[in-house]
Backbone:
């Protein structure tokens, strides 16, 4: 309970300071005539600037780097009829809408400018357990699910950071520290989705037997494309008694290079029961390689030999967690992702299918700016049991998801962070091991983004999108929606 309250406080504590205070001057908080019409019809569930405390909370998002304006109001549906009403009013008045579940979009797409409004699913966060399944409403976050599932003999494959929302995360595919050993991506564990169609007229189910095209698409299409996701039913996996986490650190660039190389050579021999994330923590830790090994008491013996075969570094005593919520809370903290104040950030990355020695050298000796960090999230294992076209998520052969994460407080820092991220991204891309970018790490600067996010699945996604939420019709649209011809400069 304490943990749950703790991360809720952290989530609610997002503040936009420094740099944001400066851009606040160019924000306008007034609706257009059409938005005012929409507000008139949704007054009973809307929060406006007339309620300053509630409004401040309502418009907050994890990455405020792109929110130069705020919407004139945020609607808080309490049920599916309210969601339908929001979408119908938006369509009738011709006002753009954005949907917000956890608000963690790296590109800030769960907000709109002053001409639109936000549908926040915060009041729709119920989590219901039934046997080996859990049904979570889109407005819940992973911590809500872990908190409920922790009481059972099961575990849910979900996000590493408890305050990330179910809605956006699951639609992008969703990888987890449990993905390799417990059945793949979070979307691979989805048995059914419930969605309000983009025109607000229908509530539909998507499953293996109903609306199969939508079921395929919702497993990796990314948020904001097809309609408003109401809930998802996930299959749970039997849980171990303990989750074990140990950390290996290297003190020098030479050792980091050998550490990277030892991982690179073992990619195909790691047991799937080992999840081995890598990082150069930059702004909050050492600027050398850290490996985080996560496994369970059931698989300890199997995993140990693999860890012993890695280039030796300083190894911290393993920590044991019976609660998955407690484990993910601690893991997030040690990865610097739970800030009391969330600042503007830029994130850029790509999936990779190998780690060649040239890249090992590049990363080991990289000059990392003070505000950046590099992360390599372990893929492979059970994620590869599906083909690239089995669901909308195409990068089934990825061994790691690589990304840079940089925060900034002024324009100069922003440029430095973006320059560094782009240069690291280009280097990885040119090394021949890049597959494409992860749609859940939505990137406004990514060129040819449709093919980069969806690869071989893009043409099919465009077709299905035209059926469920055609371009140019209705109100649920954004810059980088499937099929859009928008490209960054
Ligand atoms: C700290 C942090 C940790 C992360 N860890 C992981 C991780 O472990 N694994 C991983 O795979 N990803 C991770 N991510 C990326 C994360 O999956 C994406 O940012 C995801 O989009 C967040 O979902 P959300 O509901 O919180 O975000 P939101 O900003 O609310 O939504 C993201 C997008 O989906 C749309 N959307 C939201 N709700 C709905 C809905 N109900 N119906 C339709 N569209 C909707 C929004 O409009 C927006 O375009 C992490 C991100 C952060 C910031």
Residues:
């Amino acid at each position: 309970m304490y943990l749950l309250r703790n991360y809720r406080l952290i989530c609610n504590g997002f503040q936009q300071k420094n740099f944001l205070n400066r851009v606040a001057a160019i924000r306008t908080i007034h609706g257009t005539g059409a938005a005012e019409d929409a507000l008139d019809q949704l007054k009973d569930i809307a929060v406006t600037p007339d309620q300053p405390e509630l409004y401040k909370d309502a418009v907050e998002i994890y990455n405020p780097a792109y929110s130069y304006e705020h919407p004139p109001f945020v609607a808080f549906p309490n049920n599916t009829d309210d969601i339908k009403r929001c979408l119908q009013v938006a369509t009738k008045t011709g006002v753009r809408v954005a949907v917000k579940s956890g608000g963690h979009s790296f590109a800030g797409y769960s907000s709109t400018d002053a001409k639109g409004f936000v549908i926040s699913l915060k009041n729709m966060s119920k989590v219901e357990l039934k046997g080996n399944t859990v049904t979570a409403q889109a407005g819940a976050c992973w911590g809500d699910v872990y908190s409920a599932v922790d009481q059972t003999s099961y575990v849910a494959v979900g996000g590493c950071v408890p305050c990330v929302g179910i809605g956006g995360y699951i639609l992008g595919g969703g990888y987890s520290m449990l993905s390799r050993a417990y059945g793949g991506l979070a979307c691979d564990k989805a048995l059914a989705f419930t969605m309000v169609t983009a025109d607000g007229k229908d509530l539909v189910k998507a499953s293996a037997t109903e609306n199969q095209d939508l079921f395929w698409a919702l497993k990796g299409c990314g948020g904001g494309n097809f309609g408003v996701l109401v809930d998802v039913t996930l299959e749970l996996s039997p849980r171990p008694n303990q989750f074990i986490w140990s950390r290996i650190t290297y003190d020098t660039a030479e050792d980091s290079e050998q550490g990277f190389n030892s991982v690179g050579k073992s990619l195909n021999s790691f047991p799937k029961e080992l999840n081995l994330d890598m990082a150069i923590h930059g702004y909050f830790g050492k600027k050398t390689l850290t490996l985080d090994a996560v496994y369970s008491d059931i698989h300890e013996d199997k995993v140990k030999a693999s860890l012993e075969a890695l280039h030796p570094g300083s190894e911290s005593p393993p920590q044991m967690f019976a609660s998955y919520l407690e484990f993910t809370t601690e893991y997030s903290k040690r990865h610097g992702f739970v800030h009391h104040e969330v600042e503007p950030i830029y994130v850029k990355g790509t999936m990779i299918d190998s780690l060649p020695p040239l890249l090992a050298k590049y990363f080991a000796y990289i000059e990392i700016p003070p505000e950046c960090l590099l992360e390599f999230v372990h893929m492979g294992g059970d994620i590869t049991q599906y083909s690239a076209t089995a669901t909308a998520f195409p990068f089934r052969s990825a061994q790691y998801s690589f990304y840079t994460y940089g925060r900034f407080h002024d324009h100069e820092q922003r440029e430095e962070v973006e320059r560094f991220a782009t240069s690291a991204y280009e280097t990885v891309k040119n090394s021949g091991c890049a597959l494409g970018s992860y749609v859940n790490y939505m990137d406004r600067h990514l060129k040819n983004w449709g093919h980069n996010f969806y690869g071989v699945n893009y043409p099919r996604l465009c077709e299905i999108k035209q059926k469920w939420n055609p371009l140019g019709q209705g109100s649920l649209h954004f810059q980088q929606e499937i099929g859009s011809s928008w490209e960054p400069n």
